[in-house]
Every structure is written in C-alpha cells, then in structure tokens.
Amino acid sequence: MKFFKSILLAVSLLVTLVSKGQVLPVRLTTEMAENPLAVVENQPRLGWQLISKESDASQVAYLILVASSEEKLNNDDGDVWNSGRVNSDKNLHIVYSGKPLKSETKYFWKVKVWNQSGKVSKWSKNASFRTAPLESDLNPTWIGAITKADSHLPEGRTYHTATFNREKKMSFINASDSLARRSIMLRKPFEIEKVVKEAVVYISGLGHYELTINGKKVGNSQYAPLWTDYDKTVNYNVYELSAKEFQKGDNVIGVLLGNGMYNTLAERYTKFFVSFGPPTLFFKMKIKYNDGSEEIVKSDGSWKYSKSPITYNSIFGGEDYNANLEQKDWNRKGFKDREWKKVIIQEAPKGVLRPQTAPPVTIQKQYEVKTVKELKPNFYVFDMGQNLSGFPTIKVKGKRGQSIRVWVAEGLNEEGTIAQGRSGKPYYYDYTLKGDGVEEWTPKFSFYGYQYVQIENINYKEDKNKEFPTLVELKSNFIYNSAGEAGSFVCSNEIFNKTHELINNSIKSNFQSVFTDCPQREKLGWLEEIQLNGPGLMFNYNLQTFLPATMQNISDSQRDNGLIPTIVPEYVIFGGDFTDSPEWGVTGVILPWMYYEYYGDASLLEKYYPVMKRYVDYLGTKATNNIVSHGLGDWYDYGTHPAGYSKNSPIALSATSHYYYGAYLTAKAGKLLGKTEDFEKYNTLASDIKTAFNKEFFNEETKQYGTNSQFSNAVPIFMDIVEPQYKEAVMQNLLADIKEKGDRLTTGDVGNRYLFQTLAQNGENETMYRMHNHYDAPGYGFQIKFGLTTLTEQWDPRKGNSWNHFMLGQIEEWFYQSLAGIKSDPEKPGFKHFFIQPEVMGDMTFAKADYQSVYGKIASSWEKKDGKFILTVQIPVNTTATVKLPVAKNSEIKIDSKKVRAGFDEKAQKPVLELGSGIYTIECTI
Predict the structure, then answer these.
(1) How confident is the model at residue 158, as a pLDDT?
(2) SS3 of 96, please?
(3) Top-level class of domain 362-376+391-480
(4) Where is the Alpha-L-rhamnosidase six-hairpin glycosidase domain (predicted)?
(5) pLDDT at residue 111 above 90?
(6) Shortest CA distance to 43 belongs to which of 644, 603, 503, 471?
(7) For 525-773, CATH number?
C-alpha cells in the first residue's frame, strides 16, 4: 500500500502544476515500465497517463521527442525521433518509429499533448530507456568454484519425493560435495584512473547472488535473478551505477552466491531434488568515462573465490552461518586474498540469457515480537503476529563458538512448541557466534512461511545464564515481489474487510519469482491459481511487467506435444493428472486475454498465440468425440469427503468445459490478430465441443448438468455453453442447490470463481452476500474466527496442510467488480471505457475501492445515508465511464448538487449516466 499511496501523492502534487484547461502527461512508460534498463524490442512501445484540473478532459494529439542525450532533449532536439504532431487520442502502446536503436544504449524522451479544446500541454518530465545488449555482445563467461562435470550433480528433473528412487536420492546426497553446493564469495579488484561518467552492470548469479561494489550492495533484490527453467531461460539483471559508486585507484567487485532453485539440496526438508549445476556467475560491467572512452570488466579466469560463512543454504531446508568464518572487508580494497583460489571457468547454463524485466523480490515489511512465552527455562516461543513468507533477523551476544538455532512455523502444537509437520520439516536457521559484542544476522538465500519462532538454550534480553547466548532482538521480514499495489478495498462488512486482508496477505506471501502455491512446503508455481484469481490479482497488484515473465515461463515449460504442465517452471514432475490437468494448462490460453482486458496490451496474445494453439491442439489429441476426461477436476471441492480430486462433479465435465474455453479464446485471438483461417478452425472446434458437452452432460428433463452440483451447473452458465432457452432453468436449479445447502458452497479451487461470477453476473448478489456473510465453514469467516492472518488451503484450517494459500481467494473479483462496481469493458480494453455499477445488498451501508489502471486512478465510493444513495466516482483523463445506479427508475439524481436526467438500462433496470473524466459526487433518492 505504501507504493500505491506514493503514486497517488506524486500524481496529486503534479495536478497542482497543471494550468487550467490543460492536460499534463505524467508517468511515462516504455514497454509498460518506467525508465527500464533492458528493452529488447527494436520498436518499443511508449505510453503515458494524463492529469487535468478539468472534467471531461481528453487528448486529441501528441508529439514525442526521443533523443540520444538528455542535453539534446532539454533543447527540444529529437535527434533520434521527432514524431511531429500526431492527431490521435492514443496515449498507450505507441510504437517507436524513429531511427534504428543501438544495443546497450540509453535514450531519453518526452511528450506533449493537445486536449479536446486544442490547448497544448507543457512538456512532460524527461523519461528514459536503455536497450538491452545482444547475447553476442554479452559473450558470457561463467565462473565458479567447480565445474559441473566435477561436481557430479545428477542431470534432469526428479519425481515427487513419494516416488523418488532411493538410489538416485542417495547418489544425489553423496555426489554433492561442498563446492557443488556451498555458498561462495567471488572478488575482482580493478582500477579506476579517469573520471567515471556512468557504468552499467549485467549480472546473473545462479541460483541467487548478492552484488557489492566497494562493499556496498547494488540493488535491493532479495532473490535475484528470479526463478526460471534454467535449461530454457536464464535471467540476468541490469544496474546503472553513478560515478559516486567508484573511487580513484583500487576498487573491488564482490559477489556472494547461493543455491536457490538452481541447485536444491537433499539434507533437511526438501520437496524435490533438482540441480542445473553448481553455483555460477556471469558478470559484465561497461564503464564510460567523461573523456568518451570505455572499459569492460567481466567474469573471467582472473577472479578469485573463497567459501563464504554461509555453510548451508537450501531454499527448502534453511540456512546456516558461522560468523567465525567471516573475512572482514573481503569485498573492499586492501584485502589480502592470497589464500583465495582462482575461479574455474564453468559450463554455461543451457538457457537463453534474457534480461529480467519483472520486478525484484524485496523485503517489504518488518514485524517485531507480538508476544513471547518461556515454555521452560531458556526455551522461548515468539509470536510475530503475522503469518508471512520470509525469514528472521536476530541480534545476539555471547561467547565465541556458541550457537543459536532458530525454528520457524505457521502454527503451534498443543504444548505450545512450533509445528512444522504440515509445512515441511526440519527447517531451521543456525547461527554460530564470533563473540564480538552484539551480532546481527539475516539469512540471504532461504525463506519459509511462518508466524512463530522457537529458540532453545538462550537468554532473552537479560544475561541470566552465562552458558547460553542472549537474544537481544528478533524481527520478522516479510518478502514479496516489489511490483506494487494497484488497488484498495474497504466496506461496512467486517467479514469482507478481514477476508480481503487474509487473501492479500496470502497473495503477497506467494508473490515471489512466480506466483507460488505456498511459501513453505512446495514453493511451486501451480498455474490454475493465476487464471482463477486473475481479476483479483490485477485489481490489487501492478502485474504489467510481471505477467509477461509468467508467460515466458509457460512457453518455456510447454512440451513438444503442446502440453502445458500444471506447475511452471516445472522443477519436479509429479506425473499423471498432477502434471496434465486442463484447468491448470489452459492458463496459457486465458492469461494473455486477461492481460489484454486489463492493460489494453495485445502483445502477449501476439507473442504467445502459437502456445495457445498448440495447447488446444494437444487437448484435441486427448479428446474422444470432443470430450476430454482427464485431470484433477474441481480440486478440493467442499463436502464431507477428503479434499483432493473432484468428488462432487464429473472430472470430464470440468476438463471438457476448459477445452471448450481454450478453443473459444483461441478463436477470439485468431480474429483479433487477423488470422482468418485459424479463427474459422477454432471457432468451429469450440462449437463442436459445446455440442458434445451439452449432449454428454445436460439432462433436458431435469434441466441440470452432470451430477446437478453447483460446479456442474455454474460452469456452463459462466462459459455460455448452456443453450439460451435453458439458461434460466439451469440457473434456478443452481440457486435451489445453494439454498438446500443452507446458502453454502460446494465448489472447490476451480469452481469457486465460476460459481461466484455466475451469481454476480446474473443478478444474484444477495445470494453471494448470504453465502459469505457468516462465520461457518465453508466460508472465509470461519478462518477469521479461527484467528488466522492468511488464507488457508482448506476452509477448515485443521484439515489442510498449508495455512498460507491464496487459491480460494476468488472473492476478490466480487469485492471490486460487484460491491464497489468497477468493471472493465471488453470492447474497450485497458479501462479506456469502463463501468461503475455498484451492488447494494444485505445490511451494507458503504463500500469503496480504487484501482490504478493504465490510464490513471479509477475510484468508486458509495454510502447509504439519510434515505439517499451517494456515489463518488473518479474517472481518469482520456477515458469514459458508464455509471449504472442501484436505484429506482424514477429516483431523483444529482451530480455535484445539480439535478440531471439519467438514461435507463432496460436489461439491468437501472438509471444510467455517461461520464467523461473527472471526480463526481452523485446523489440519488432511494
């Protein structure tokens, strides 16, 4: 929320600089990012938002200047591109059309616009972008402590530990000698004799790295680079360094390497075993001097390495640190590295080097101890107050050689000790003291999902027992992706408010290199969560540069036969339906469409259209008479049965409906992209699947689908598979089942979204309200009553494994789209035009939400007060909105205290207003 508030504050300050009657371009982006450092496109797309003091403001023309230097840009010299005045209302995804761009080059640009009255704006602030190097220019040399061949690490993927061959497992353990798995430090001294203008660093340290220049950390990433399938893609990071980072004479580059997902270990807890090789580093730094000369410092055989004080690091097992192995100032000048060894030139990873364009994972919040219990002398359990993904920071003092073991967990056993049984054990952090006053330590290369910390054999704050070290301070670090928050929601219903909080704490905990299922026992990218929670994710977070990386991972993981596996990256092969389930794989088809709808950007549809086609074609090879019968179905559907495979509804019904949905969206993409033959092919296929689905699963006598379950009836309504003449009857049967179940759901991970949206889109929001406004299971209220701070894997937390899972969080879409009423218009993607159509239900008295769209802030805030319905809306410049009011046709309506005549939507039976940009207060009699 801090990121979101800072954006709003910055924009509000800019508004004060806008002259009356003008618009001003702000928040300039290149390829959807502000001042990116590694643009790979030859014709990048430029964009900006607009602000104005006036209502109903829009853009009618723009002029862009792109220059080779900031000095030239400041002199209005667009020596690279001067677009001239372009008569267009377009302010996003404008394709650069200037001189050919050079690689590894920084460009500067600005824009001015004309508004609807013909007034020209001031120039925007300067923006920049830097083009990425060609891979041939990088010419990477990978270095480390041991070659892949000498490390004897096993090749290939592994299967889930339940079926993992013991012989292979043991060979994995025995073959992993210390250099193959050990964190190492690498250093490279270099000299600076001239005045530095700037420097650019290109680096990839696998699994993860920490880079320092003269002892100072570069960047704020916690786990860089982000995870990928390293056989297909290897991310590298780009950093710009200023002259102040260097000193005349001797300078030192220092790099610390850890294992990450690149090289998992078998000791302690692990979900699976996979290795792409021992820790390895690629580095290149291009230094530019004021005299115009350049110098390159890169990874080669002149570097040296030493084992680091991190004696164990596993993404699944934890981390150990021995402070007595520290080498003071190892990454600064003057350090004597005679005992260090020359690096080995290593085999390069198989994957293509690509710049990491998605935001980094960083430490976002810190929590202090909420409560502490001393279960027995010198045995403490700390409640940090929030379940999260992360790691602790400790401050300790004691004698040299004393150690402190830090256990972390989501929950507690009955006796009050930490419980890791559900989340993967043993997982812990060991710190060995050097005995030098108060020592502070934070792990670098491992994280876990936890709320509680257990530490034995210590004093806490007071030195009561000299045999033990003293814990002076304990903090909990919450890590998640730094993409930033895009929205906020609050209403008069406390269950809904706390539900929103639970879900978002879980999303953040699993918003890492990829969207994971849980931050402890698996840390895997199960795909269905992304598409089924997609609208809620996009309303809450800025995913413009994150989702393209997700689609690259999906493309990398697609098999030669077209299968998209259930987890991406596919570090482990689960086999059977746990590898191949249509509801998961179809994410590769749905996600580009969601991206287009929310951001108005068709680039993912264009780039990954072949991925979409190949997956639908793959499902066709698994179909019999257009019926697909494999997969997990409505995973974790609710009932008295154990959670897992769909039990309430036919798996074939679920699989075939998603086969249809994939074909339908692929046909739609073909039409949008002008691929006529493909459109006809997949449109015909979708029609054939729909016919087969209705023949197989619809009972004309009962007007029900499948097993008459909520999932069985909701899915064909949502996907528009049911024939129009039967839709109302199917809907009534669905409502009857919900009522029979006491206004409770029976759907699961897959079905929740379809059930929720079927109700919301068909005028049954009161049913949705009753279904969730309670403290029973199934329901979010039960978890609130249970005292949890994150959403769990099952409705009853006592039954599930993970207590930090966002897969059941599909109600977020309803909060924003129905309660607050902010809804996109598929015909004008990216919220160029949108709807504000709040739903008032139950005893609710207010709801408000805002969303930072690509065009600017959208807000909807309503309240019932003194017999009136009062709605305040905010519409960004250069967009329009249709406002549908939840009042009677003959209601008196005022905008900013002035009476207005509204239109009327016969289908929705609601008064309608068409509004341009601005902030409006609409008051209606109830």
Answers:
(1) 55
(2) coil
(3) mainly beta
(4) 485-818
(5) yes
(6) 603
(7) 1.50.10.10
H helix runs in 673-799, sequence order: 676-697, 710-718, 724-740, 751-761, 765-772, 780-785
Domain 135-360 matches domain 362-376+391-480 at the CATH topology level = yes
Write the pLDDT tens digit of every residue in 56-103. Answer: 999 999 999 999 999 999 999 999 999 999 999 999 999 999 999 999
Average pLDDT value for residue range 418-447:
97
Token pair 């806490």 is at which residue?
460
Q: Please state, as a whole number, how many other Cβ atoms lie within 10 Å of the Cβ of residue 366.
A: 12
pLDDT tens-digit profile of 214-232?
Answer: 999 999 999 999 999 999 9
Helix axes 676-697, 603-622, angle to 10 degrees: 50
Radius of gyration of the chain (CA): 29
Choose among 383, 425, 376, 435: nearest CA to 404. Answer: 435
Token pair, residue 887, equals 């009042």
What are residue 413's phi and psi, to 5 degrees?
-75, 170
**Count of helices and strands (H, E) across the chain:** 21, 50
| pLDDT one-digit tens code per residue, 634-679 | 999 999 999 999 999 999 999 999 999 999 999 999 999 999 999 9
Give 498-530 pLDDT, tens digit per residue: 999 999 999 999 999 999 999 999 999 999 999
Compute CA distances 268 → 219, 405, 573, 759, whole Å. 31, 14, 21, 47
Give the pLDDT of residue 3.
40
474-486 mean pLDDT: 98
Single out the residue of 463, 458, 469 nearest to residue 399, CA to CA: 469
Residue 248 CB neighbours (<10 A): 11
For the sheet with 893-895, list strands across it: 487-491, 846-853, 856-865, 868-875, 918-925, 893-895, 898-899
- Per-residue tokens: 152: 């004897």
Q: What is the pLDDT of residues 172-181, one digit of tens each?
A: 443 334 799 9
DSSP string, 586-629: THHHHHHHHHHHHH---HHHHHHHHHHHHHHHHHHHH-BTTB--
- How many Å apart are CA 406 and CA 450, to the nearest integer? 12
Q: How far apart are CA 863 and CA 873, in angstroms?
A: 12
The domain made up of 3-130 has a fold known as Immunoglobulin-like (2.60.40)
Cα separation of 614 and 784, whole Å? 43
Q: Are strands 344-346 and 341-342 parallel, antiparallel or unpaired?
A: unpaired
The secondary element (H helix, E strand) that includes residue 796 is none
Q: Please check whether the domain covering 833-925 is classified as CATH 2.60.420.10.
A: yes
Residues 6+ apart with CB under 8 A from 736: none
- The domain limits of the chain are 3-130, 135-360, 362-376+391-480, 525-773, 833-925
Report H helices in 125-282: 135-138, 148-151, 166-175, 178-181
Q: Which residues pair with 4 in a beta bridge?
A: none
Pull the structure tokens for residue 789: 């701070």
Residue 646 to residues 291, 662, 663, 717: CA-CA distances in angstroms?
69, 20, 23, 19
Which of these, 127, 54, 70, lies nearest to 94 by C-alpha position?
127
Cβ 859 vs Cβ 487: under 8 Å: no
Cα separation, 225 vs 283, whole angstroms: 13
3-state secondary structure of 74: helix
CA distance 386 to 705: 43
Span 131-163, pLDDT tens digits: 999 888 899 999 999 999 999 887 665 544 333
Amino acid (1-letter code) at residue 808: L
Structure token pair of residue 875: 């519409």
Q: Do 450 and 412 touch, CB atoms closer than 8 A? A: no
Spatial contact of 569 and 556, defined as CB atoms under 8 Å apart: yes
| Mean pLDDT value across residues 185-193 | 97
Class of domain 135-360: mainly beta
| Contact assessment for residue 265 and residue 217, using Cβ atoms and an 8 Å cutoff | no
Residue 757's closest CA among 789, 717, 703, 721?
A: 717
